[in-house]
Fold:
Amino acid sequence: MTYTIISTSPAAREKVYYTVKISDTENRTFKLDPDLTQEQIDAVVIETLQSEEQVEKDRAAFNQLIADGLIEDPRFS
Amino acid sequence: MAILYVDYENGNDSNDGTSFANRKKTIDSASSVASAGDTIRLAKSPDPTSLGNGTVPDPFPSIYHYRNITAITYSNVTGETDITVNSHSCNTGDIVEIYNNSDTTHRINGVYEVTVVDSSSLKLNNYNAGANATGSGGYFRVISGKCIKLASAPVKNIAAFAGGTQRTAWTASANVTTSLYSRYSDWSSTRATMQGGYSDQIEIDSSFGTGKAAYYTLPATLNLSGYQQLSLNIHQYSGTKVIDGNYSLKLCSDSTGDTPVNSFTIRQPGSTSASTSQPFMPITIDLGSNLGSSINSIALYVDSDQGAQQLRMCNIIACKAKSADDSLTLSSLVGRNSTTVDDQKFWYTIEAIEGDGDIIVVGPTGRTNYSKTSYYYQQFGAWFGDTGGTYTFYKRECFNTSVDHNTGNTSTDVQRVIGSGTSGNKLTISGGWDTSDSMTTRNGLSFYDGIHSQHGQGLEVSSRSYITIENLGFFRYYTGFYLHNSSHLSAKNCFSGSCGQNGVYHYQCDYCEDIEFYNACSGRSTPISIENADHCKPKADGYIRKLYCNATYNGTRIYNSGRYNRLEMDTVWSTYHTLYLYIQSNWGLYIDYLTIPEGNTYSSHGFPYFQSNRGKVEIGTLTGKNLYYGAIYVYQDNNLVVNTYNFSHTSSGNYGYVASQYSTYVNQCSVRILGGTVSRRLYAQSNGKIFTKGLQITDSSEYYLNDSSELFARDYDGTSGDYFSAKAYSYLQSDTTTRRTASGYSWKAVMTSSDSSYGNGYAWDVAKVAVQANSLVTANIYVNRTGTGIHGGLKIEGNQLAGFASTESYCMGSAGSWEQITVSGTPTENGIITIKADAYYDGDTGHHVYFDDFSVTQA
Structure:
């Protein structure tokens, strides 16, 4: 998938902020090396979004383990 | 100021202890006659000896993550059986554990060094299926990080090891039932085995009587003349337990266990009533002479009839003469034996010796609720150093207190300090004194072993004052050091390990100083617990210097301490704990260095967990690596300040697990981070707030905020003068490029999502102004938007002062020019009003708006 780069701006340590359109209603900013190709930027975006998806799955699974009494809820142990 | 002498092995409590010749046996006896200012010298336990070089296959293990075995190609050639595990991520030489395979013909469950074939295929070194076949099933877990592969094997496998077709149940006599036991579950606390994939289960019926109960024919004749000791893990789970033993293992020259050559009575410390809740214990018997040179079978004999008894055994090995440097047994401790590098001082108990007797698996022994594979109760890694590779490893032996101080319950004091010192005249209990020069030189340590990790308190100091304990170690007790309701305690260079509940339980001990503990493998509960420690001395006086903890269920716990004076510590170091390092409910706490050098790999655990602290908790330098939520996990606790936070991660966890996602987890509270560098983005949820100053975030995505959480950053991302704040779908930052006037900076507001529409955009307080009644208040700001898909303006919410109605105004003009926005109102009472700037999305997330030159006047 190709993501539209809306804008770029300087970031710390000679990095560049790439503002990327990830949906019709949302942008994300990624701090990356300058002069990246579209493919490289797409790869970062995909990895990040997939990782967020995984995080939410993990969190749901973790909460399910607590709900099932298989591990302690850290908040109440 | 007298010196008293204590020697656990060769002392006698009927002596007066005033000379080496008349040395006592126990700390209890010596401390009962000691006076303030006296020193009790303890004979050292045997010094460490070298096992030679050992390799840790992977210094940073991912113990937790297991995989399914999708296919197995069994082979009757040793080392040629191939298993398929998708994306196993192993390297040749890694050590893996296979469990839950139900094939009782090929018996593949066990621990193996592997040879990598390709990314999804591995061969199991040393395994021989006995036939060529195909199969599948079972789980696969890499345990490299808790293993030491020795260059040469110091022990010899006899029985109850490994798998394959050679692994058969023992042959039972009449009225005895034997089987291989391997019932595993990731979710249960069943103790199936300590070694390989199976234990040998022997059920003796009440009608059996005495004599040979069962035997095992060895696959090949063994010459054991180079060995003098027998070591095994045993768990009697039913029937009467006889402490001094009522059954024996016999090495026999014939193949049916009828011609004993060597006989070993199996002592069984702990409760005399066997129970499934009791653990496997490592038992080592020293014959004192060479074992037989032609051993063909091993047999279990009942020597005195105790009715029905049921037991499981595993890892029966022959060990070298006690005098040999490499006389490793299952009772030994192993470690790198550093006296200078703190994180290499740990001493580990041995979970099993695998392979050809050359692979040591370290881990907790003798724990209840211990399941070799259970994710809930364990899966510890082990820390051997920060680089992995090959090191010289050492083993050492302890004084076995179970012989004289057997206890069958958790709270019995195995040894205790009786008596106290006084201010300026502490009573000192000092370990490590050399008996070869009549204990005039201290050049070692005094380590004690309770064998049964569910029973006894290794050393109790309760309701005492002005005590120093030093150079001591307590292993395999319910609690190693039980320090309770005392004051002015010092504990220097003290060690614990494999204690069922706590390695160190430090409770209600005030005015303490010079605390230094190293703990490994302890603790169903908390391996080191510092609880209710008040009236604390400042760090300059050395209140708590070092707490090192490793390979445990929870990490160190610092709880409800720091009243009257804050609790100050130099170093809290903890790694490979399955759950949390608790810092909770403290009144005031300062830790100079809090370090998690490597996270565990258990989902979202392993982090320091800050919760419900009552007063400021300040961390000088917090360092973490490969923790899912970073090293700052804060829940409902607004008291945490971290001066420097350094967090790093590897690109992904080994064996397929993503080791780290965030550098913080801030839930329903706020945290302040005043510097450092993190390689993963910040995360807050449920109205969490993160304040940073100068913190560098090297991740490509710098934060993830949800549920009304916010980030407030000064010197953002390490850039001096940059201000940045963010919410889930918008952010605000200082800007010097687009100014209405020439100096200073403007504020740039960006809406990153359509969710930041009117009422949900980015609003912030630009002024709180004292105003007079009945006089018009006028606020102005200039806004400049890059497109019409965004609005910026001012608003003053109503109900702040009487007469002042809610008012707001937003830009409506074209893009690219400065537009003055004005709001005004007249209060009818004196008071303070808050004026907000506000921006919101109106059709295009690519547009943003600048705010500049705010002013407020009153007529």
